Amino acid sequence: MLTETQRVEFETRGYAVLPGFKPAAEIAALRERALALVDDFDPAKGAGIFSTTDLAPSAERWFLESGDKVRCFFEEEAFDAEGALAVPKRLAINKIGHALHALDPVFARFSLGADIAALAQALGLERPRVRQSMFIFKQPAIGGEVRWHQDATYLMAEPHPVLGLWFALEDARIDNGCLWVQPGGHRGPLRERFVREGDRVRLERLDDTPWPGPGDAVSLEVDAGTVVAFHGLLPHYSAPNRSAVSRHAYTLHLADGRSVWSPLNWLRRPHDGVPGG
């Protein structure tokens, strides 16, 4: 599941790259199911725009109630000046989140298998629990930037930080918005925390350590089927996609069952009975 070299790399760099982790058939099934969910999505019944730079008040409720649901979020640039979709719906969605692993059979089979549990345990989670799942489209031409951040900002667990698993469902290259990371950056402080107060959220600055500059960042160009595992404190980023091809990816965030889930987290489920939750 994980070589000793990969385990040491994860501890020292804060991330590990495992090519060929998922077979082509499983990847194809996930992409096909995601497109079917988009086809079934009716924006008239509710919708939100996803942004890592600003969460508009009109989208907050759609976002905050998505922890135990399957919801679509639009790209910021998917609309024209009059507010109408400027591209077909399949090319307008930024992501689907955040309980795909718990509520959809196709995503559950992909997400809750023994392979992922074994990988999480090899990376230090004694009792791995999937807390969040997202299908990310990174659409051609309008795929939005995901600013430098740490996953522990948005999903706080103590004493063991969350583990991110990022599955490349298409080849990820610099041109179509691959991941960038700061090797060893997980040894630095948590810079921000995303705090929920009732039905509102705010980003609170904790530490003034600057985000990585060009000389500190490494691009992760990977082939479809690869999984990138990263520590919850590892700074990472992806640029806008201005190319003609998409960069589909699927992300899981796992917490250790021994950890305490922060009451400040935005992600709150009404009960503990959600599978994988």
What does this entry look like structurally?
- The protein is 21% helix and 27% strand.
- With 277 residues, the protein is an alpha+beta fold.
- The protein has one domain: q2cbj1_9rhob like domain (Jelly Rolls, Sandwich).
- The strands form four sheets. Strands 1-13-8-15-5-4-3-2 form an eight-stranded mixed beta sheet. Strands 6-14-9-12 form a four-stranded antiparallel beta sheet, with no helix packed on it.
- β2, α3 and β3 form a beta-alpha-beta unit.
- It is globular, with a radius of gyration of 18 Å.
- The protein starts with a helix and ends in a 16-residue tail after the last strand.
Q: Keywords, please?
A:
16 strands, 7 helices, eight-stranded mixed β-sheet, four-stranded antiparallel β-sheet, 277 residues, Jelly Rolls, alpha+beta, globular
CATH architecture: Sandwich
Looking across the biggest beta sheet, what order are the strands in? 1-13-8-15-5-4-3-2
Number of strands: 16
CATH hierarchy class name:
Mainly Beta
Q: How many individual domains?
A: 1
Give me the secondary-structure category.
alpha+beta
Distance between the termini: 24 Å
Total helices: the number is 7
- What pattern of helices and strands is seen along the backbone? HEHEHEEHHHEEHEEEEEEEEEE
Shape: globular
Strand content: 25-35%
Tell me the CATH topology: Jelly Rolls
Uncertain runs: 271-277
Mean pLDDT: 92
Task: Note the quaternary state here.
Answer: single chain
